[in-house]
Amino acid sequence: MVVAALGLAALAGGCSTNHPAALKPLPKPKAHHAVVVAVSSPAGTTLVATTDGSIPGSPAPGAPSNLVVPGSWYGYPSVLPVIASRPNWVEVRLAQRPNGSTTWVPQRDVSLAVTPYEILIDLATRNLTVLYNGTQILSFPVGVGVPATPTVTGDYFVAMKAAAPSPGYGPFVLVTSAHSDAITDWEQSGDAIIAIHGPITAYDDSLIGTTGAAISNGCIRMHDADLAQLGDVPAGTPVDIVAS
Fold first, then answer.
1. How far apart are CA 155 and CA 158, in angstroms?
2. Domain enclosing residue 15, as ranges
3. Tens of pLDDT along the chain (244 residues)?
4. Within 13 Å and on the Cβ side, how many CA atoms surround 28?
5. Residue 132 contacts residue 116 (beta carbons within 8 Å)
6. Among residues 115, 139, 157, which one ends one of the domains?
7. Could you tell me if residue 79 is inside a domain?
8. Are residues 211 and 123 in the same domain?
């Protein structure tokens, strides 16, 4: 659940050397803050919207605002995947509860750019795959939620890359927009956010092994060396969690 060092006492969570090697080094993306004029992106990529402070959100293009999209979340800028567009409007995913929340925002209120990455997590095979421009480039075994506190399925995104609160969390933490359905208040934080991080303990690291394991309160746990290869994945990158 969210990492305390961030003031995110909410992470739902918590390397052996025999894990499979990466297929090839992770490519570095172009700067994700570059403005894109057209509301479109090349095949295999995702358009992302960065807000300039808090902005209004509407249930439909041109409709009156019914919520405020915060300019930041836990101190990190809001970088949100775009899932649809209409003239002068874009529909974006939100990081806040409930899971799957979306809203329409005026295009003038955001800067648009592209991320070439996508993360796919398969809970059945306990595997995390990274795609670059639609092509698989990395694949790793992972720890997922136990039956009592399962990892949620759905379409989410990387909300931020945060410093690890302790060595057990690995080199950094990728905080996602997913929230636990089984836990609503982790350690009195007011939330329970799903993150991708290190194995926490050497024992859990050994359980992940080469095939993955159900060991967490919902977070995705990785061998430290595997997690380190995700360091260039930017905020806004889609994270699709399936149970197939």
1. 11
2. 4-26+116-242
3. 544 445 444 555 443 223 333 333 344 444 333 333 456 677 788 999 999 899 999 999 999 999 999 999 989 999 999 999 999 999 999 999 999 999 999 999 999 999 999 999 999 999 999 999 999 999 999 999 999 999 999 999 999 999 999 999 999 999 999 999 888 766 656 678 999 999 999 999 999 999 999 999 999 999 999 999 999 999 999 999 999 7
4. 2
5. yes
6. 115
7. yes
8. yes
